[in-house]
């Protein structure tokens, strides 16, 4: 069985632009809706959502069953948790606040089997056909590895950014945190914030990785596209629910008033 992240990595390598969204609600229906809507991938949010690991794994498993790639955002590298998420079928990992070579090295080590990493091996999980796959065949299939995303959301990094990104797949701009770190909360369009985003874009090209980022609405995508981003995220399930509910209530009240 091919590594769940293989399809995403191949499409990005081919120059495709991928569009995804965050999942923050512990409901399998959100995965169904994302798949039917046509998103290329989803990111299960274990950092800024009321999701525990078990709920996250269930979303990952459901996405795998539907053929939808599910990346998981984690706040830190916990090798045991990362192994369980990958064994559940996660297509990749997105590490928040990646600041150093040590952060990037830990992410790669936890997600790759020896000799490339230090991930513990087991065949008792879906990606290994629950033990039916032979060990050597399984390892050969997994060499391509999971999609690895470094979320860059600080004004500086501890090591040169291009060095931090080397060996990963995506440099994801955490624009909201970045604006706060620069003392300009929410002012993503400010020249200082945009200059830092430009630095991240340059470093991503130097490291040979794809640039990515998040926006609240599709209308905000233009700046990211101009910077060359191809791993694009729009909104979240919770945001879509909130905005749709507000719109419906406004329409109903408008009709009643009329």
Task: Give an account of the 3D structure.
By secondary structure, this protein is of the alpha/beta class. It is 45% helix and 17% strand. The chain has 11 helices and 8 strands. It has helices at 6-13, 28-37, 53-66, 79-88, 101-111, 135-142, 161-165, 175-181, 191-207, 221-226, 237-257, and strands at residues 18-23, 41-45, 69-74, 92-95, 147-152, 170-173, 210-215, 231-236. It has an 8-stranded parallel beta barrel with strand order 1-2-3-4-5-6-7-8, surrounded by 7 helices. Helix 2 (28-37) packs parallel to helix 3, helix 3 runs parallel beside helix 4 and helix 4 crosses helix 5 (101-111).
Topology:
Blueprint: H1 6-13, E1 18-23, H2 28-37, E2 41-45, H3 53-66, E3 69-74, H4 79-88, E4 92-95, H5 101-111, H6 135-142, E5 147-152, H7 161-165, E6 170-173, H8 175-181, H9 191-207, E7 210-215, H10 221-226, E8 231-236, H11 237-257
Parallel strand pairs: 1-2, 1-8, 2-3, 3-4, 4-5, 5-6, 6-7, 7-8
Could you give a short description of this structure?
The protein contains eleven helices and eight strands.
Structural descriptors:
258 residues, alpha/beta, TIM Barrel, eight-stranded parallel beta barrel, 11 helices, 45% helix
């Amino acid at each position: 069985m091919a590594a769940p992240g293989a399809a995403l990595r191949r499409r990005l390598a081919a120059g495709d632009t991928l569009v995804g969204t965050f999942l923050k609600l512990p409901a399998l229906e959100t995965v169904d809706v994302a798949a039917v809507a046509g998103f290329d991938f989803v990111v299960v949010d274990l950092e800024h959502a009321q999701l525990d690991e078990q709920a996250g794994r269930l979303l990952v498993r459901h996405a795998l069953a539907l053929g939808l790639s599910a990346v998981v955002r984690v706040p830190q590298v916990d090798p045991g948790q990362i192994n369980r998420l990958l064994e559940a079928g996660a297509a990749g990992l997105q590490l928040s606040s990646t600041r150093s070579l040590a952060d990037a090295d830990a992410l790669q080590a936890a997600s790759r089997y020896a000799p490339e990493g230090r991930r513990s091996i087991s065949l008792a999980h879906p990606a290994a056909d629950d033990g039916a796959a032979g060990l050597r065949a399984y390892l050969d299939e997994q060499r391509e590895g999971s999609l690895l995303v470094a979320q860059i959301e600080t004004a500086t990094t501890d090591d040169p950014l291009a060095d931090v990104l080397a060996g990963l797949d995506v440099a994801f701009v955490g624009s909201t945190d970045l604006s706060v770190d620069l003392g300009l909360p929410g002012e993503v369009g400010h020249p200082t914030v945009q200059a830092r985003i430009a630095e991240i874009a340059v470093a991503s090209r130097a490291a040979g990785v794809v640039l990515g980022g998040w926006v609240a609405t599709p209308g905000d995508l233009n700046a990211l596209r101009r910077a060359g981003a191809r791993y694009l995220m729009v909104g979240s399930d919770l945001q879509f629910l909130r905005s749709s509910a507000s719109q419906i209530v406004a329409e109903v009240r408008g009709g009643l008033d009329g």
